[in-house]
Specification:
The protein is built from 6 helices and 10 strands, in the order H-E-E-E-H-E-E-E-E-H-E-H-E-H-E-H. By secondary structure, the protein is of the alpha/beta class.
Amino acid sequence: MDYRSSENAAATEVALGGVHIPGPRAEDRMPETVSSAVKIVIVGGFGVGKTTMVGSVSEIRPLTTEETMTQAGIGVDDNYGSETKTATTVAMDFGRIRITDELVLYLFGTPGQERFWFLWNGLFEGALGAVVLIDTRRLEVSFDVIGRLEERGVPFVIANNAFPDGPRYPSDELRSALDLDAHVPIIECDARRRASSRDVLLTLMRYLHEMALHHA
């Protein structure tokens, strides 16, 4: 079953045990013009804004798997710079956005806490590219994230989520600190803003297009 038939299969009410379960809202259904779908993952350390980005840019109601943080995470999870967070993603975030009338992106946000990283392999499967969200207050949490993408050969762009109290660095300094190749795009963004998050995704799509032309 392809992406369209699997999505539209739930478009009508389903009777289950005498209970009617509604399908997706009309505004959440796939437009008839869409002919291609691409899987994109949004990755990064804990608290860098992955859930925020998926929620801000998704044109459908996003799926989140956030759970309340408890005392059990003390000493296990590194929440430096995110001390005010009260919930964390434990599986994934999911959203959808159309780039053109024909092309849609499925967005999968990964959990940031290292104890949930075993889920990443499944989320990376079939992904055409990735957005790596970084927080300049905690650049070190990005090293393992980038390393995992490089090991799997997943192309990515860097999105510097500009927190108000985060230090500002020129792109060349960030590139050096993250040990990035010269061709990897770096873009500053505000994950809370739909337009800014959409610009990040467009940067990734242009990058993937350029790579495809280069290898053609």
